[in-house]
Specification:
Largest sheet: 7 strands, mixed
Structural class: alpha+beta
Number of helices: 19
Shape: elongated
Number of strands: 21
Helix content: 25-40%
Strand content: 15-25%
Radius of gyration: 29 Å
Length: 579
């Protein structure tokens, strides 16, 4: 007898739907269990093999827990925003909401055929205003909060404002982008605009200047995963590194709590270790270095304060603001050429690539202990987002510094007795210190010779703290999350500046959550304009969807886009920044 699986599966799938077999209701008599899958992006291609691979495993577990008597919540949804849908809309002239719904219907059909035990009554679509209304509500809560390090929790921003009005920044221990210092009188004397800019330094959701992957042809910021070999995965357009003002979430404030929380979750030790490395807690010290023949000084962070006597050069990240300040006229052309090459590489590529590149800035820094003049170089192995974007290079005891020094013929000065640096650096934090300082070299009041590495680290930290050369600090590799919405088909920020509408320059952000009717206002013109701006090139006058006008016409359209299609009267719930 033939097994007619098609009819059998249809029969039982219909039975599950008719009897709402997997619909979950609150039941206090049962223990709750939540199974959460990663929501798929509904592309036009439908499910790929990786989707059921994960969903089948979690569905087996959901069924297992249900048979154990648990009240199992096993929902499904769609991560429905994204650049692919927007690009498809530009090419075809169709609204991305239409194509997204069609794709979701195809996904649902395929998921139903597999027979998953999802509770479809709780389906989520991230592009639905009914859904992102609440994520925007959460965003506003974070915008109106700061993080108190003493209490290890978020607090209302009004409390911070009250403290500024009473004592200024005195005694403050809060998470911030930059350490600021001012009195209560100085705070009160500032304009509302200045006060709002200062508060951005403390808000959990804040506007900040950050390095992003910018694609000029797509007109948007891309995630690292969307960039392959310096071009966009979608369309193969060039991508550059660029500092832009972006909305960020201050997740770095929660780094220690995340680290401590790993001890409370039932994960494998290997997975926990991966997470610890990702958070990247580093105990070290910040030190100030002055620039020779200049009033400029800059801060570096190091976990090996004991190696300060072995510094033979400094390195700046290409994105550092110090690059422009320290590059001499004689080196300007070389530095500009290097920066142009570097900005085409993503941070991930720079971390993975162990090849050596760099350029001399032409300036020198002064070692605060030995008074030696140290050359300042620029290299892409230093990242602007970690530490301060500047390092003191100790090639004898750091592998990347060693490779750089070997490549450019810079001095390599060993600090550990008996260490062999003929072929590679000696990175182990063990041994007895030497050359700290070298015979006949000023020691600046600190002598580490004869101490163990552990003793030398502790003594150096204490010395720089008591002499004011720096401070002891804990750093984390974990960075603040960046929110880079797409040109249109991305979750809108619930913040805008009303100055564009009124003509009056107001700087206090206003908060609006979208109504469904507002969401579609003006979209046909918006998509048509984007098609003209970013579609393939065509002759003047042919600005229909899917084609791109010549340069002069594009410039005119972009002016129209900036002046007519971004103001809040069209999208009153979007974040708007005065142009």
């Amino acid at each position: 007898m033939e097994y007619n699986f098609r009819d059998i599966e249809k029969k039982w799938q219909k039975q599950w739907v008719d009897h709402k077999t997997y619909q979950v209701k609150e039941d206090e008599s049962k223990q709750k269990f939540y199974v959460l899958n990663m929501f798929p992006y509904p592309s036009g291609a439908g499910l790929h093999v990786g989707h059921p691979l994960g969903y089948i495993a979690s569905d087996i577990y959901a069924r297992y827990k249900r048979l154990q008597g648990f009240n199992v919540l096993n929902p499904m949804g769609y991560d429905a925003y994204g650049l692919p849908a927007e690009q498809y809309a530009i090419q075809t002239g169709q609204h991305p909401a239409i194509t997204t719904v069609k794709n979701i219907e195809r996904y649902r059909e395929q998921l139903d055929k597999i027979g998953f035990s999802f509770d479809w009554s709780r389906e989520i679509r991230t592009c639905d205003p009914e859904y992102y209304h609440w994520t925007q509500w959460a965003f506003i809560k974070m915008f109106n909060s700061y993080y108190c390090n003493d209490e290890q929790q978020a607090r209302p921003i009004e409390e911070l404002i009250s403290a500024f009005e009473t004592t200024g920044t005195e005694g403050m221990n809060v998470a911030c982008s930059e350490e600021l210092s001012f009195t209560a009188d100085e705070w009160k004397a500032k304009s509302e605009k200045e006060q709002q800019e200062i508060l951005m330094n403390y808000r959990i959701a804040y506007l900040g200047n950050t390095m992003v992957n910018w694609c000029p042809d797509l007109g948007t910021v891309l995630a690292n995963d969307e960039v392959v070999d310096g071009v966009s995965e979608r369309g193969g357009y060039p991508v550059i590194q660029k500092v832009m003002r972006q909305w960020c979430l201050r997740v770095s404030a929660y780094a220690q709590r995340l680290l401590d929380g790993l001890n409370t979750v039932e994960w494998t030790e290997s997975l926990k270790e991966t997470q610890r490395n990702w958070i990247g807690r580093s105990e070290g010290a910040e030190m100030q270095f002055k620039v020779k023949d200049s009033d400029i000084e800059f801060t570096i962070f190091t976990t090996r304060a004991d190696t300060v006597f072995g510094v033979t050069f400094m390195v700046l990240a290409p994105e550092s603001e110090l690059v422009a300040q320290l590059t001499t006229p004689a080196q300007q052309a070389e530095v500009d050429a290097y920066l142009e090459r570097t900005k085409k590489r993503t941070e991930r590529e720079r971390i993975a690539d162990r090849s050596v590149s760099g350029v001399f800035s032409g300036s020198y820094a002064i070692n605060p202990l030995t008074n030696e003049a140290i050359p300042v170089w620029i290299s892409d192995y230093v990242l602007a987002g970690y530490g301060t974007g500047a390092i003191m290079a100790v090639p004898a005891h750091d592998s990347r510094d060693y490779a750089f020094a070997k490549h450019f013929g810079l001095e390599i000065r060993p600090l550990i007795e008996g260490c062999d640096i003929s072929e590679e650096s000696f990175d182990a934090k063990e041994g007895i210190m030497m050359n700290s300082p070298r015979p006949g070299t000023p020691e600046g009041g600190l002598v580490l010779n004869g101490l163990t590495v552990k003793e030398a680290i502790a003594k150096t930290k204490e010395y720089i703290k008591t002499t004011g050369l720096g401070r002891v600090k804990v750093n984390f590799r974990l960075r603040d999350a960046i929110f880079s919405r797409q040109r249109y088909w991305g979750e809108p920020f619930p913040v805008y500046y009303p100055s564009l509408r009124s003509g009056k320059r107001e700087n206090r952000p206003r908060h609006h959550l979208p109504a469904r009717t507002e969401y579609n206002a003006g979209i046909c013109r918006f998509i048509s304009l984007l098609s003209a701006l970013y579609g393939p090139t065509q002759q003047p006058g042919t600005c229909r969807p899917g084609y791109r006008p010549v340069l002069a016409e594009r410039r005119s359209l972009r002016r129209r886009y900036r002046t007519c299609y971004r103001p809040p009267y069209l999208f009153p719930f979007l974040e708007q920044v005065p142009l």
